[in-house]
Design a protein that fits this description.
The chain is α/β, with parallel strands linked by helices and 211 residues long. It has seven helices and seven strands.
């Protein structure tokens, strides 16, 4: 999906994504377990719901950074953060995830929700290499993504695959083998959980990078 499409979608995103995406994001945040004083980056923060949750968890001594390619998403997220009174601990930027401008060994954790699978395989490798660089020793990465399985696809999965072919500009998340993707880039899986959202298989993976 293009930046322009995300800008248009931003006004309706919370309504469209509904409670299903909120539920799995909360599951992911529980697994990530942000701690007081941590510095955490969210890649593809959307309308900022996870940003606010993490900002509350890290407290005044922590800092949450977010990058997203959509100015529309950024504008909505900033309003939410401001209303929550958390501007002092949140930094949001319009930035491409394949060209991140952060120092090495800077973050305690990285969080991605339905974002990694939007990129091509070469781009995913670039993003994960960047994550390895910016994470501190024993830093962790938590990713939520649609899951590619070898099981016979359900009716919902077949309908989704059809919609993806017909409307690739809007149905852009594609299933991936998250654990294999992370392992290929040298990450060590510490926790994995599979759940269903809207009848589609989703995986939450928590991993670290050995130093």
């Amino acid at each position: 999906m293009s930046e322009e499409s995300y800008d248009k979608l931003s006004k309706w995103y919370d309504f469209i994504s509904g409670s299903g995406e909120k539920k799995i994001k909360n599951e992911g945040l529980n697994i990530l377990a942000p701690k007081e004083g941590e510095q955490i980056l969210e890649i593809g923060f959307g309308t900022g719901n996870a940003i606010i949750s993490m900002a509350k968890s890290v407290g005044k001594s922590g800092r949450i950074f977010g990058i997203d390619i959509s100015q529309g998403m950024l504008d909505i997220a900033k309003v939410k953060v401001d209303k929550a009174g958390l501007l002092d601990r949140v930094v949001l930027k319009r930035e491409d995830a394949t060209i991140m401008n952060f120092d090495s060994d800077y973050f305690d954790a990285v969080f991605m929700s339905f974002t990694l699978e939007l990129f091509s395989k070469p781009q995913m490798i670039i993003i994960l290499e960047e994550c390895k660089k910016i994470l501190k020793k024993n830093g962790r990465i938590c990713i939520l993504s649609m899951l590619k399985t070898n099981k016979k696809p359900s009716i919902i999965s077949r309908l989704y695959a059809w919609a993806q072919k017909q409307f690739p500009e809007y149905v852009d998340c594609r299933p991936i083998n998250l654990q294999q993707v992370l392992k290929n880039e040298g990450f060590v899986i510490s926790e994995s959980k599979q759940i269903s959202v809207w009848g589609l298989p989703v995986e939450i993976g928590l991993a670290t990078i050995p130093r």
